[in-house]
Amino acid sequence: MATKPTRRMALTTFVIPAGHHKDSWRKEGSRIEEVPGLEYVAELTLMAEAAKIDAVFFGDIANANPTLRGDIKTNGYFEPISTLSALAARTTSIGLIGTMSTSFESPYTVARQIAGLDHMSGGRAGWNLVTSFDGFQNYGFESIPEPAERYRRATEFAEVVRQLWDSWGDDAVIADRENGNFIDPSKVRKINFQGEYFSVEGPMPGPRSPQGQPVIVQAGSSGPGLELGSSVADAIYTAQPDKGRAIEFYAELKRMLVGKGRNPEHTKVLPGILPIIGETLKEAEELAAELGSYVNLEHGRQQVSAGLAGVDLSSLDYDEVIPVEWLSEDPALGSRYQVFRRRVVDQKMTLRDLIVDMARSAGHQWIIGTPQTIADSMIEWFEAGACDGFNLNSPYNPGGMKQMCELLVPELQNRGYARTEYEGTTLRDHLGLPRPTA
Ligand SMILES: Cc1cc2nc3c(=O)[nH]c(=O)nc-3n(C[C@H](O)[C@H](O)[C@H](O)COP(=O)(O)O)c2cc1C
Q: Which residues form the Luciferase-like domain (predicted)?
């Protein structure tokens, strides 16, 4: 008999109501006409809550560029804070993680909005910190700052947000009716932050939120991304299609955490996984083929080009492999570029295969199988030290979300790797993270 696991996986789900697999909205029953309305996304979120998943996660592509290239799976249709605020009112337990960009926003606004979501949800808020790679023209930039520059700003940004979250002590509110004092002024502090990018006086306009510091997720895996993540993140989202590399990435991050005096168990590494599920392997393969058949190859050519730093692919036949010399080796192009570059250089994928691969999972791991075989593989990654859990990407909706929540997660529950009831009330509770005091 298999021994009982000693730890559980952290599980979140990256909600894209149009489906993660590109063009899966064409599948019958997709309910694409209801995007971006509340009822549909609330139904998807409630499925995840019924499966006792830690959190729903909303990315944010704050520009129309993917849609104009024919990619309508983009997650920019659901502005995260408005969506999650509505979902806070429709749910009771599940965590609510939303993306806000450190390149586009002001730290004072982000601190307020995420803390506001934490108040409104009773301590279920998380902020996915991204530096963004597109859409800068919408925010007054003429060109995209270099990654190193974006991460420098992001590092300062996160520092300001955290200082603001701590600017009210947990015991600052005394609500002393008799003497008419609502707060103890000695427990509310200005932060007087002066940095290279930001000058923020503080304090926050209102009390500390239930989690004290809402959960910070960092989605970026390059050198500077890891540097920032290991300094401030409670969880890391990362695209890791290869188990060996995922183990190296995991070990490196945990080493960095220890080096910075942080508890390595308090930063969860959550690679994305896109499961294509069938009751039998044959059924799953048929579903994968069906989803693949929806992919528009001409749009795919443009999307591959965009994923590979704009390389001109117009002259390439679908059955050709992109010549290696067309692809830059510049490490500044970021971790996802490197994932796609390896597909060409190491795996010699043809343009057609690359289009389908990218359509499936945008560089994340995808897996075709039964709930049992997919759970086997997830457990293998988890036990091998490749991750602390996963960010589940539903390939098509609502059917794929239903399969994940009603077939795959229960399989993990049966084997003791996923919870069957929420034990705590906050997202920090779900992830097993302590609450920082101020
Ligand atoms: C699961 C996941 C979700 C992401 N979501 C967003 C997003 O919503 N908006 C965004 O601008 N970038 C998003 N990113 C991209 C990262 O912020 C980052 O730009 C990208 O991973 C490249 O940075 P890196 O080279 O440091 O890894 C996401 C990345 C991952 C792994």
A: 26-386
Weakest mean pLDDT among 15-19, 150-154, 360-364, 409-413: 360-364
* Residue 240 CB contacts under 8 Å (≥ 6 apart), including other chains: 221, 246, 249, 271, 272, 364, 365, 386, 387
Closest C-alpha among 149, 166, 156 to residue 198: 156
| 60 is annotated as contributing to ligand binding | yes
Q: Is residue 54 part of a domain?
A: yes
pLDDT confidence bin for 438, thresholds 50/70/90? confident
348 in a structural domain? no
Question: Which residues on neighbouring strands pair with residue 101, listed in sequence order?
Answer: 130
Probe target for ligand 1 pocket from 336, 339, 393, with the most ligand atoms within 8 Å of CB: 336
Q: Whose CA is nearest to atom 29 of ligand 1?
A: 219
With b meaning 16 or more CB within 10 Å and e meaning fewer, what string describes 294-312? bbbeebbbbbbbbbbeebe
Q: Is the beta carbon of 163 within 6 A of some atom in ligand 1?
A: no
Amino acid 221: pLDDT: 87
- Give residue 248's domain range: 10-277+366-431
| pLDDT value at residue 2 | 64
Domain count, the chain: 1
To test the pocket of ligand 1, the residue of 133, 134, 240 to mutate (highest count of ligand atoms within 8 Å of its CB) is 133
Domain membership of residue 45 (yes or no) is yes
Q: Could you tell me what percent of the chain has a pLDDT over 70?
A: 100
335 lines ligand 1 (CB under 6 A): yes
pLDDT of 76 strictly over 90: no
Nearest CA to ligand 1 atom 20: 220
Checking if the pLDDT of 1 tops 60, the result is: no
Cβ–ligand 1 contact at 59 (below 6 Å): yes
pLDDT digits (tens, 9 = 90+) for 94-149: 999 999 999 999 999 999 999 999 999 999 999 999 999 899 999 999 999 999 99
Whether ligand 1 lies within 6 angstroms of the CB of 219 is answered as yes
> Is residue 266 in some structural domain?
yes
Mutation to probe ligand 1, out of 237, 361, 391 (largest number of atoms < 8 A from CB): 237
Cα-based distances in Å from 49 to 68, 95, 141, 254, 420: 33, 9, 39, 29, 11
Residue 130 CA to ligand 1 centre (angstroms): 6
The rounded mean pLDDT for the chain is 96
